[in-house]
Write a structure and sequence with these properties.
Strand content: 5-15%
Number of helices: 7
Helix content: 40-55%
Number of strands: 2
């Protein structure tokens, strides 16, 4: 632009070589990327473990220091902080309850005490392999595997008596031992 405010254009005769081609980004091969992801997961898992141990140690020190302040603090000390965990759980439920009518996801989150957020953080994390992602995966895994499944009607439980359709070993009256050839099979099975 000149002093009069008029724009003047100059055409370039030759474009420099480095502007013609975009800069080449080295692509990592699959195994390098997998190794970096694995390293990040291991490092963040170790960090999460250290943070958990440090938080537990600090909590126990605080409980020990305050144990003679009141009956509540002494009871909390004896239960390793279970009373505080109960209070924190109640606060969390109240917080979810305040937002439960905002959306169906908030209602489900209130109903599951934060399970929707945990599942979302485990399945579709904002930062894969981060400490938060690993914590959500561990929490979701714990929730999935601690429940005891109820037996289905067609699968016998250890305390139920076998029915006629199941193979039952027969004992030999002479030797009081059962043999593999003495099984009674269901009708039609040879």
């Amino acid at each position: 632009m000149d002093h009069d405010g008029v724009m003047k254009y100059h055409f370039v005769e030759k474009i420099p070589e480095e502007r013609l081609k975009p800069p080449e980004v080295e692509e990592e091969d699959f195994f390098t990327e997998l190794g970096n992801s694995f390293k990040k997961t291991v490092n963040n898992t170790v960090e999460l473990g250290k943070d958990t141990v440090t938080r537990f140690e600090n909590n126990q020190k605080e409980l020990y220091d305050n144990k003679m302040n009141s009956f509540y603090d002494f009871s909390n000390y004896l239960t390793l902080g279970a009373l505080d965990i109960g209070k924190d759980t109640y606060r969390g439920i109240v917080g979810y309850g305040e937002n439960m009518l905002n959306s169906p996801a908030d209602f489900a989150n209130w109903l599951t005490m934060g399970g929707v957020d945990t599942a979302k953080g485990a399945i579709a994390p904002e930062d894969p392999n981060s400490k938060e992602h690993i914590a959500n995966v561990l929490s979701l895994g714990t929730l999935m595997f601690i429940r005891r499944p109820t037996p289905s009607p067609d699968v016998p439980s250890p305390s139920s008596k076998p029915s006629g359709s199941q193979a039952v070993p027969q004992t030999d009256n002479n030797t009081n031992s059962s043999t593999a050839s003495s099984f009674i099979l269901p009708n039609g099975v040879k």
